[in-house]
Amino acid sequence: MPAITARPYDYHLPTTASVALLIIDMQRDFLEPGGFGDALGNDVQRLQAIVPTVQKLQAAFRALHLPIFQTVEGHQSDLSDCPPSKRDRGKGALKIGDRGPMGRILVLGEPGNGIISDLAPLSGETVIAKPGKGAFYNTNLEFLLKTHNISHLILTGVTTEVCVQTTMREANDRGYECLLVEDGTASYFPEFKQATLEMICAQGGIVGWCGSSEQVLAGLKQFQPASL
């Protein structure tokens, strides 16, 4: 069985197309100046650094005709799916729903809520709007994964310790085998990212696996498009 060299031990891939790439929240509100991340006082350049890595993984999955799912965190325009506790928490310059330089913050359909152009999905690739931090909460992600017979997930995106980790833990509880790409995820706080990676791989991979993009790409080369 094909495998990816990873921590805490090799991550074995299925021999059929039951592995998918999950790209979490690579949206303008988090990665560009004037968005929500910036309004909270964060250095958005820390997140921009992983874009080339995620692009390489995206291209590899496309070449193998393997499924790619992207998520964006966002809310309905009336904020009916945004709990007051979420909107009111923190004391940033802008809150969810407020109008910023790229439209209303974290509102679906607004310019800032869109995926950055470098990772724009192709026609037929799925984008899942999620109202929470985890990609399974109040979404159809699990239905889509079951429809595609997906059992293994390669995770990338931002931020490592919040939406990415939450999604990975949700997936783990649902029986999915998950690998987080170490250089394909980022946090505004590098120490939080490192702590998350260690937590995921601890105790024999209690949540899942961690590996580099180079290791993942090498593992994917074991697949041949004609066999999918």
Structure description:
The structure is a single chain. A six-stranded parallel sheet has the order 7-4-3-8-9-10, with helices on both faces. Helix 4 (51-63) packs parallel to helix 9 (213-220). The chain has helices spanning 28-31, 36-39, 45-48, 51-63, 84-88, 141-147, 160-173, 190-205, 213-220; strands at 3-4, 11-12, 19-24, 68-73, 99-100, 103-104, 126-130, 152-158, 177-186, 209-211. Helix content is 33%, strand content 20%. It starts with a strand and ends in an 8-residue tail after the last helix. It has nine helices and ten strands. With 228 residues, the chain is an alpha/beta fold. The mean pLDDT is 94.
Number of E-type strands: 10
Number of helices: 9
Unreliable stretches (pLDDT < 50, length at least 5) are: none
- Give helix % range: 25-40%
**What proportion of the residues form beta strands (DSSP E)?**
15-25%
User: Biggest sheet, open or closed, and with what strands and sense?
Assistant: 6 strands, parallel
Per-chain topology:
Elements: E1 3-4, E2 11-12, E3 19-24, H1 28-31, H2 36-39, H3 45-48, H4 51-63, E4 68-73, H5 84-88, E5 99-100, E6 103-104, E7 126-130, H6 141-147, E8 152-158, H7 160-173, E9 177-186, H8 190-205, E10 209-211, H9 213-220
Parallel strand pairs: 3-4, 3-8, 4-7, 8-9, 9-10
Antiparallel strand pairs: 1-2, 5-6
Helix pairs in contact: 4-9
